[in-house]
Amino acid sequence: xxxxxxxxxxxxxxxxxxxxxxxxxxxxDTPPSESDVLHHLxxxxxxxxxxxxxxxxxxxxxxxxxxRPDESADQVHADGLKMLQSDQLAEAEPRLLRAVQLRPTAAxxxxxxxxxxxxxxxxxxxANTLRVALRLDPAxxxxxxxxxxxxxxxxxxxxxxAALREAVKRAAGAEDLRASLVALLNEQKKxxxxxxxxxxxxxxxxxxxxxxxxxxxxxxxxxxxxxxVGPFEKAAALAPQWAEAHSNLAAAYxxxxxxxxxxxxxxxxxxxxxxxxTAWGNLGNCLRDQGRYQEAAAALTKxxxxxxxxxxAAGNFALTFAAVGRHAEAVTWYDRSLTLRPxxxxxxxxxxxxxxxxxxxxxxxxxxxYRWQTEAMRGKKRxxxxxxxxxxxxxxxxxxxxxxxxxxxxxxxxxxxVKPLADRGANVVLQTPPELAELTATVPGxxxxxxxxxxELTIHTHxxxxxxxxxxxxxxxxxxxxxxxxxxxxAVAKWQERLKGVPGFxxxxxxxxxxxxxxxRWRSVPLAKFAPLAAIPGVTLCGVQKGHGREQMADVTxxxxxxxxxxxxxxxxxxxxxxxxxxxxxxxxxxxxAGATGAKVWAVIAANNDWRWQTGRSDTxxxxxxxxxRQPKVQDWDGVMAEVEKELRGALxxxxxxx
Length: 659
Description:
Layout: E1 6-7, E2 10-11, H1 34-47, H2 51-64, H3 73-85, H4 89-102, H5 107-119, H6 123-136, H7 141-154, H8 157-170, H9 175-187, H10 191-204, H11 209-221, H12 225-238, H13 243-255, H14 259-272, H15 277-289, H16 293-306, H17 311-323, H18 327-340, H19 345-357, H20 361-368, E3 399-403, H21 408-414, H22 418-423, E4 427-431, H23 437-440, E5 446-450, E6 461-464, H24 468-471, H25 489-498, E7 505-510, H26 520-523, H27 531-534, E8 539-543, E9 561-562, H28 570-577, E10 582-586, H29 589-597, E11 601-605, E12 626-630, H30 637-651
Parallel strand pairs: 3-4, 3-6, 4-5, 7-8, 7-10, 8-9, 10-11, 11-12
Antiparallel strand pairs: 1-2
């Protein structure tokens, strides 16, 4: 609930920092009068939650110190109110106190005194004073709204909700009160109630951009971005000059990977308000997501010019540097962001990825644990009755359960770290995706493979698979790259027989990754880009593509043998790879499988590549049988394929361009 307290018709936009209790007119040398004593007792009654007693004491105080002949209650109140509205709080306080002494039945004067206390962050006194005002006159809805805010700032959210509902009941046409109720329900984690109230409010106030925006924010807070887009679009249409509405819409579009729409909405936001820093930040993000890094840097620079201490903008600037391979500068900007927001999990994790890209494993692996605090991984960490292994506890004779996470390629890459645990004397039980179970059983050190849903198991400790390098303090020297998975002999024999009739050099190809992967738009290659390889004399393209992407075979003009439709699991795929002369693949689970089984593989890697492929090298410490071919610039797959074609022709003893 963000609505400010009200003084008559004027808004109070900001509360001042807290200060010490009420300073009454100084009386250093004389004993307190009866009026002063009564007034002090009234203050204590307010603090104890007895406004009825306080009101009576104030009335007695007034009788004990009657007005001077030249003293006008109205003038005293008017002077105090003027000072309150100009934030002269110390000067306003004795005048408003004296005003209610002179006229204790003036409900609005008590309300003004309550607002004063609230501005001084004396919220208990504010709430008690406002209750006195409501006891005298409960009709004004705004007064109930002010009481709600005082309760909220005390931390008494249920009381705030009750007061705000009373305000709404008394002024159903006040859209700001309805918006405040929505916000307060959301603050109490009553999300469903908040959404229901927001929906009712949009029906009652269909032309209110603020109400529509509040509904969109509720959906966005639940990561329901598809649902958020509609309300944000409505808010932006109703208030075309409201930069925040367009900026929120841009952010929702970005979450849905609708980057062109996000760019359009962001540009509308900065056009409406060129000083809107968040809108510039959203524009920078969507430009980066489209690979337009120079434009992204310019927009983020504008954001930081407007808001130099914006931790999020600094982190986004770091992401932009990382995307163009300027990793040292990325670290500098991550450090700046974390100086402003030290425990931000997303930024710590992003910095970890940059460290790992630079093979700075000493700093990278520990920070990689911040993945559990990212939007993508939050809430996904498994828990068990047993303690989590900390990397130091003795594993001799102990059973450790290893838990998979993330993608199949990650599983294949990191399962190599089972052997060091077995070397420490551990009995390793590994939860394994079904399609990898047979192959995983061949990994050195694996004692038992179980399905993810098998619960009957006695274990002493556990760990998540991708935490192992950090727990083991893995260095670059520990990555030997030798194969650690063995294709089943039956699968190898099956595909040896199956490929007997395939002529020439058997070139396996994989062009499409999982479209749900956040970086798939960078790593996947249209099958049509493989045309230069299909044109090499004596080369037969063998499709190892499963699932999404296979439909592209119907659109190319060169032949591709479709073996993907015959593959049953990764053991079957490993048998096929063992019978191919070479695999050319994008960054995919099949690339990891080839490297893990020792199959010869050339991986085509995006310019803004994943951390594990590091920078500027054609080999990788992860897999000895893998060669990397890197994009010269973003989305330039033609350049990559030209290099692959040149190397393949050379390997086959063919002149470049020979047909």
